[in-house]
Amino acid sequence: MDTMKRPTPNAPDADNDLSAEPAIAAWPTMEAATDSGPSDIPVDVSADDEDADEIPAEFNEVPSRGVGAGACAIVAAGLSLIGLSGSWASRVLAERQSLVGQIERSKAATPADQIAALYGDGWQLTALVNGVLATLALLIAAFVLALPVFGLSGRDLPSWVRAVSWAAVVLGTLGVLIFGFLYFLPLPKVPA
To answer: What's the rounded Cα separation, in Å, for the pair 83 and 179?
Structure first.
C-alpha cells in the first residue's frame, strides 16, 4: 500500500514556490491579542522587551580565564601525588640498581657492604627520583600561585586553581621532606 502523496505531473511544485507566505504569518501577534478587548490579566509588553535584552553578569564572564594556570595546577598536584606514592620510573631504576648490587655482591667482603650494594643504592635512587618529582611539583605550584603577583594572569586566579595549587604545595613539601628523610636515612647495622 502506497501512502505517499505523489504530485500530479502538471501541478506547480509547491516546495519550490518562494513567493508563498509562510504559515507562521497566520499566527496571531501580540498586538492582536492585546487589541482584542479587555482582559482580566494586564499585559505589560514593554517590561518584557527590556528584560529580554539584559544578560546576567555570570554569562558575560570569559570562560577561558585561568585555563593554563588551572592545567599547571592539576599537573603540579598530580606530580606531587606521584612523588609521594612513588613512580614507575623510580621502581625500575631501583630494580636496576639492585641488579647491579647483586653483580657487585660477589666482590663485597663484609655483610654491611653486601647490604649496601643490594638495597642501599636502590633505596636512595628511589628516594631521589621521587624527591625530584616532588620538587618539580612544588616549583610548578609556586609558579601558579605567583602568577597574579607578576600580573601574568589578570588580577586573580579562580578559586579552584588556587585550592589545587595550595594542595600541590602541601603535598610537594611533604614529598621533599620524605625524600630527605629516606635519602639520608642510614642503613641498619649488621650485628657482629
So the answer is: 9
d(CA 70, CA 110): 53
To the nearest 5 percent, what fractions of the chain are helix, strand and coil?
65, 0, 35
Domain boundaries, the chain: 67-184
Whole-prediction pTM = 0.60
Cell readout for 181 is 628523610
DSSP letter at 191?
Answer: P
- Those residues whose C-beta lies under 8 Å from the C-beta of residue 66, and which sit 6 or more positions away, are 153, 154, 157, 158, 161
pLDDT tens sequence across 3-35: 766 666 665 555 555 555 555 555 555 555 555
User: Do the Cβ atoms of 173 and 101 come closer than 8 Å?
Assistant: no
pLDDT higher than 60, residue 132:
yes
Q: How far is Cα 125 from Cα 117, in angstroms, rounded to an integer?
A: 12
